[in-house]
Amino acid sequence: MPPTIDHAAVRRVIEAARRKGVDLEVTVFEESTHTAEEAAAAVGAEIGQIVKSLVFVVPGEADDLEPILCLVSGPNRVDVARLAAVLGRTDVRRATAREANDLTGFVIGGIPPIGLDRRVKVVMDPDLGRYPVVWAAAGLPTAVFPVAPGVLRMLADANVAPFTEERRQADLQEAP
Questions:
Q1: What is the rounded CA–CA span in Å between residue 29 and residue 35?
Q2: CA distance 132 to 73
Q3: Cα dihedral sign for 97, 100, 103, 106?
Q4: CA angle 126, 129, 133 (to 5 degrees)
Q5: Is the pTM of this model over 0.85?
Q6: Complete domains list, the chain, with CATH
Q7: Among residues 135, 138, 78, 136, which one has the least CA distance to residue 106?
Q8: Which residues contact 36 (CB under 8 A, 6 or more apart)?
Q9: CA–CA separation, 48 vs 176, rounded Å?
């Protein structure tokens, strides 16, 4: 039986949005929307409209890790050096799957931009702003919600900054 909107992880996301005055329309699918390609196909959107929630870490106090959540447009990849420059840190690295789960309370593929276990620094890819609506994970690899990029930024308390790899000119000509 597929998970429903009544799943605890999805409820956390919905409740986090409601606390900021936003009602989300969450869709739960039978099949995984774990990858950006799967999510785009499932919702009938362009891959650029899919928000990948990627977790990076920097050392914190007392050997703790401080999570950084990157909201990335589907076809883009994080440039760790650019991300480090945006954060003003040199010690940034991608979180392991276990670290991502432990630091956010969600599994990879379903990490939402809101409703996390702790306060997290969030940076948002400016390319998401090219679309009127983007689709983000809603707490499970099978759950997503549509949201305007400006609302996403507000919900996640995100800073918009260029931290992705430069795209080749040929890629830019194909992009919408």
A1: 13
A2: 13
A3: negative
A4: 140
A5: yes
A6: 8-174 (3.90.960.10)
A7: 138
A8: 47, 50, 52, 74, 75
A9: 9
Residue 120 corresponds to which tokens in the numbers above? 């997290």
Residue 2 has what pLDDT? 43
> In terms of C-beta density within 10 A (0-12 exposed, 13-18 middle, 19 or more buried), how is residue 64 classed?
exposed
**Does residue 103 have a pLDDT over 60?**
yes
How many other C-beta atoms lie within 10 A of the C-beta of residue 131?
17
Return the half-sphere exposure (C-beta side, CA atoms, 13 A cut-off) of residue 71: 33
130 within 8 A of 48, measured Cβ to Cβ:
yes
Q: How do beta strands 121-124 and 51-59 pair?
A: unpaired
Residue 46 has a pLDDT of 94
